[in-house]
Every structure is written in C-alpha cells, then in structure tokens.
Amino acid sequence: MPLVDELLRPSDVTLDSLVDHVRQYLVPVTSASDPARVITARPRIPEGVSELAQARRARLRGRLTDLWLVLWAVRRPVDDSLGELLDAASSSRAYQDLLDDVAQYDADSRARLFADVRAHIQTLSEVLGTRPARVEVQLGVRRRLALGISGTELRVRFDLVVTLPERRGLVDVTTSPLDPDDAPLALLALADLLAGYHPRRVAQISSATGEVRMREVDGALVDLALSTLHERTRAA
Amino acid sequence: MNPVTVSRLLDNTLASLAVAEEALSLEPSQRSALLTRLAGIPSARRTVLDSFRVESGAKELEPFQWCAENVARSLSHDLLVRESRPRFLGSALDSLISDLVSSAESGLVHSRSAATWLAQLGPGGRAMVHARILTRARHTLEVFDRFGVAVTPSASDTYLSVARSRWVLRGRRDGVLGEPHRRILVQVRTGSPSRSAARGLRVDALAATLAHPRGQAPARIVGVWPESGLVIAVDSSLDDLRGGARDVLRAAQRLSEMTRNQAA
C-alpha cells in the first residue's frame, strides 16, 4: 500500500481521552513570552554520522529535498538538471540562504551536490509515489507550544501533513539514516495533539536509505512522548 | 480597555468566540479628529500604516518585494473568495493563476503587481507559489471550520487613504463572521504571537472601524496562530480603539522622524 494511503488508513484508536490527558501539560496562557528552554523533536543524529549530517552540504541536501517536496505536493515533475528546484527557491524568501550557498559552490562541487540530491529525490519519490489527488497536503507545518514544565516550549516541524476528512497523517523526512528511537515520532504526534488536532499516524522517512518508520498514535506513543519530554527537560 | 483573551486553540475555543455583543460606532467627530491628527504628521512618500508597523516597533522595514510568501497571503484571499471547498482549491488556483498571468501578458496590469511578478516566474517558481498559496488557503479554511458557523473569506484587507496626507491605513483580516452590527473579524497568522500582538489587533480593529461607512467597529477581532495553538481575541470598546489610535499615531511619528533623519 502506498505510504500516504497507509498513513490515512482508518484507525480504531479513540483520541478524545488521550487529548484530555495530554492537555494537562499545557500551561494556562496569559501572554506571549520567551521560553526558558526549547525542546525539538528532530531525531538525534545517530552515532557515526554526526560529521556528515552537520556538514554544509548535508544541510543543502536537506533544503533541496525539502524543495522537491513542494513540487511533489503540487504534482509537478522535476527535470534532470534540478534547475527547477533552484527556480522554485528563487521565488521564496525562505530559501534565499540556499541560493546564496549554492552560488558559492564551484561547478564540480555543485555537480556533486546535485548528484547526491538526485539520489535522495529518487529514493523519496519511490517511497511517496505520486500524490493522490484526493488527499490534501500541507508542507512545513510548524508547532510551538508552551508546556507546563517551567518555561519549556516544544517546537516541531512536520515536513508533510496529509489529510482526508477525519483522518490526518504526519510525516517527517530526514536525509540521514533513521534513528531506531521512536521518541521523535512520539513528540511530533504529541505536538499535533496539543495544538488541537487528531493525527492518526506519524511516519519518518529516510531519503538516504528509503527506510520508513510508521507509528499509530495511541496511548503508548503519547506516554513515550511525555516521558521523553520529562527526560529532556531534566537534561536541559 | 476590554481584557484581552489569550487562549489555547482547543476543539471549542473558536466556537465560543463566534458570538459577540453589538458593536459601537464612532461619531463622525471622533473619526475626523483622529484622521486630522494623522494627516498632520508629515510623510515624504505614500506609506502604509498597519499592525505590522506597530508590532515591529522602531525596526526599519525593507522595501516591499513580491515573494511566494506575501503573494500567498494576498492570492489565498482571492482563491477562497472563488472557491471554499477544500477538494476544489487546486483547480480553482490553477485557473486563478492562469487568469492573472493572462492579464499580465495583455499589459493591462501595473508593472509592480502580483500578476506581473507571477508572469515572469519559471515553472519551478510557479510551483512554489502554487504550494504556498494552497497551504495558506487550507490553513485558513481549517481555522474557519473551527468556528462552527459560516465565516466569509475576505477579498482583501481594509485600506483607507487618509485625506490631505500620504498615509494609508491598512487593517488585516482574513475572514468575517456574524451579523453586520456585531461582526467578528478573523485573522489567521503564522508563527507565534509577538508581545505586542494584542496591540496589533487593536490597530486592525481601528482601521476596520474608520473604513466602515458608518464608523461601526467590529464587535471583536480574533487572531489565530495555529502553529502555536494560540488564540488572541480583543473586543473593541472605545478605549481599545483609542489605544489602537495612539499606537498608529506613534508609529506614524516614528516613521516620519526616520524619513526626516535619513534625508538630513
């Protein structure tokens, strides 16, 4: 079954009681304020790949893959030269840094970067397939939620949110190999629940390996998210 | 001033804000008093005063340039006025963009318009704009749905050119609900609310009041920040409108001084 259909498959889990349970972690809001500490859901970098993931080229690869998702969402194919990706970037203020960085690359480095990106796009394209026309897609959806743990804010970004009436799936795309830990997925689900939505499933895709990890949003996942939050708050 | 309601965006938060008391109307003398004071502040060029200016404080703003993000806000309004059924947004957007590009190619629109900018984009650029507009429109519809009553998408923001001056007041709004004499304005915002978000909402309420033919204020203005799951609502009393007016005058004064200093 294609990934998007799998994400939006009906689920037996009733989320109402979970939603009531997790909302006790939110502070009553009285005014906007700066958080004392920020917890993000992005997966920790697995051992051995930290150098690669932190490199400038890895960041650019991530941003270009992100751009490809934009074209995927509007069902436009990308030509081989990847010129369309840079064309797309040039129309958006959010990608100005990407254009500046790519402009600093010499022809060889640029060719290597694009070859690398093409491989990631190919993998991602195989995992995602063509976007089903009936499914609504939102890109780059962010959540910033003040929690009831002394000035802590949970910040997450969903690369893709796919929806059908009464069904909602969250997707995180990473250009690194997948971490075996479910905590990032749990935090993504928690953030969406806290913002008042009812996600059914949450998935993470690695465009490096084509691996997919998908979890149904249920009590166990929410418990994992809450324990991760406490653990990270203590560690911060 | 009425207390500002800051709340979490939960299942029934917006529905509970969908009914408001009857709104007040400004007397013509009150309206003209403010506009006369504003006209008295010199401005070297045509300048838009809005909640963004108030919320961004003394920071100098970069000159306006079209990009996918600001086109998305403007064209998502047009899109939602044409089509509000989520399933048909994509095809309605295709036809909207095609209309705009045709009008630009015919040379009938201003060279600095969104249509002209769109017409010179390549396929990748248009895809980016397409994605941004659709995401914004869907975000907005999702928020509207949560009110539990019909919300009419606004075709545009409110603009008021201040007579005998070069100031233009702009009130941001994405949708309107309720009866005309107790109308509620809705804004769907990105990111998190700033510390002065409530002041910004009062400025938007003021602009809507001044632009209304009978000076009628919106009963309430609701700012929704879905990314942060926050909602800020301000009921517009006379004091709230006065607060908005003070902020607008202060922002105009600041801009006027900034321009004067640059010229000196």
Q: Kindly, what is the distance between the CA atoms of the first and last residues of chain A, rounded to a whole number of angstroms? A: 40 Å
**Largest contact between protein chains?**
A-B, 40 and 41 residues
Class derived from helix and strand content of chain B: alpha+beta
For the biggest β-sheet of chain B, the strand order reads 1-9-8-7-6-3
Q: First CA to last CA of chain B: what distance?
A: 40 Å
The number of helical segments of chain A is: 9
Q: Percent of residues of chain A in beta strands?
A: 15-25%
Largest sheet of chain B: 6 strands, mixed
DSSP strand tally of chain A: 6
Shape of chain B: globular
* Total individual domains of chain B: 2
Percent of residues in beta strands of chain B: 5-15%
Average pLDDT, all residues of chain A: 84
**Helix/strand order of chain B:** EHHEHHHHHEEEEEHEEH
Question: Helix tally of chain B?
Answer: 9
What string, H for helix and E for strand, traces the elements of chain A in order?
Answer: HHEHHHHHEEEHEEH
Number of strands of chain B: 9
Helix content of chain B: 40-55%
Poorly predicted runs of 5 or more residues of chain B: none
Indicate the structural class of chain A.
Answer: alpha/beta
Question: How would you characterize this protein structure?
Answer:
The complex is a heterodimer of chains A (236) and B (264). Chain A has two domains: 3-44 and 134-235, no CATH class; 50-128, no CATH class. In chain A, 44% of the residues lie in helices and 20% in strands. Chain A has nine helices and six strands. Chain A has helices at 3-7, 16-23, 50-54, 56-73, 83-90, 96-104, 107-128, 183-194, 219-235; strands at 37-40, 136-146, 152-164, 167-174, 201-206, 212-216. In chain A, helix 4 crosses helix 7. Chain A is globular and about 55 Å long. The mean pLDDT of chain A is 84. Chain B is an alpha+beta fold and 264 residues long. A six-stranded mixed β-sheet of chain B has the order 1-9-8-7-6-3. A three-stranded mixed β-sheet of chain B has the order 2-5-4. In chain B, strand 4 (158-161) and strand 5 (167-171) form a beta hairpin. Chain B is globular. The chains are: A alpha/beta (236), B alpha+beta (264). The interface between A and B is large, with 40 and 41 residues.
